[in-house]
Amino acid sequence: MSREVEELNRRLLRARDAMDRAYAEPLDVRAVAGVVHVSPAHFSRCFRTVFGETPHRYLPRRRVERSMFLLRDTDRSITEVCFDVGFTSLGTFSRTFREIVGETPSGYRSGHGPLVVPNCVQMANIRPRAAAPAATRSSSFGEATTDAVSIA
Amino acid sequence: MITKLNVASIYVLDKDEALDFYVNKLGLEKGNDVRQGSSRWLTVRVPGNGGTEISLEQPGPPLHDEATAERLRELITKGALSGLVFNSDDVRGMYETLKVGGVTDFTQEPTAHSYGTDMGIRDPFGNAIRILQQGNVSPEATA
């Protein structure tokens, strides 16, 4: 039994890695499920059990995290950033960003500058986790509390 | 005062498989390999003198009871334990070498940042490994 759990975990991790690596590509959950050779529905259930959130939540949060990075660190336009991170419409990007981060992409950009931590540390620690309740949406990175390292 | 990080350890599911990956795929060298009964002290290190020994530890008795070992194996395979960061003098060359060598678990292809170029892979068990070539400054971070 234990070996089966370990094998499934490893395959699901491979699928999560695919989202972290290829978020900019036209990736959807069905394609990611193909990485682990299971049906999308079964994949979503297993993924949630192992990582605590569904792949339908994980992927947009990775894309939004990468867009936050590009907004902080580059001069690329918001439309360019939207497509850079794998969204296919500006409307979906803006709405998803607002839902997850609690402010608009342009509002976020104006309030933040580059972070002086390695990119891999940003990817590990700044991906927004959950929709913050309205009362606590003052946090600069969704729920992440990393303001101390901001040099904005 | 402390003068050196002498030994760091990383959990693996199988020491032989780990040795094959870290030495034959990644290019580290075997350090200590001492057997005593059923125990085996196995380390790898960056080739050359004076580097940190990386002890390859397998969860299980007598260090852990079986339930604890099972939890650790689950955490390793879901990528929840800590990893290693190496420096390289040619990260893009290593990427090509690793691909030719059959490594497929890249978490990030070589990417330029303001502080260098790095890539990410996983060992066969789920541990995160990053390889960084420092100082190769690009005019603008691309990802």
What does this entry look like structurally?
In chain A, helix 4 packs across helix 7 (105-111). Chain A starts with a helix and ends in a 27-residue tail after the last helix. Chain A is elongated. With 152 residues, chain A is mostly helical. Chain A has eight helices and no strands. The model of chain A is unreliable at 134-152 (pLDDT under 50). With 143 residues, chain B is an alpha/beta fold. Chain B is built from three helices and eight strands; from the N terminus they run E-H-E-E-E-H-E-H-E-E-E. Chain B has helices spanning 15-25, 66-77, 91-100; strands at 7-11, 29-36, 39-45, 53-57, 84-87, 106-113, 116-122, 128-134. In chain B, the strands form two sheets. Chain B has a four-stranded mixed β-sheet. In chain B, a hairpin with a 5-residue loop joins strand 7 and strand 8. The longest helix of chain B is centred in the middle third of the chain and has 12 residues, at 66-77. Chain B starts with 6 loop residues before the first strand and ends in a 9-residue tail after the last strand. The model of chain B is unreliable at 137-142 (pLDDT under 50). Classes of the chains: A mainly alpha (152), B alpha/beta (143). The interface between A and B is medium-sized, with 22 and 25 residues.
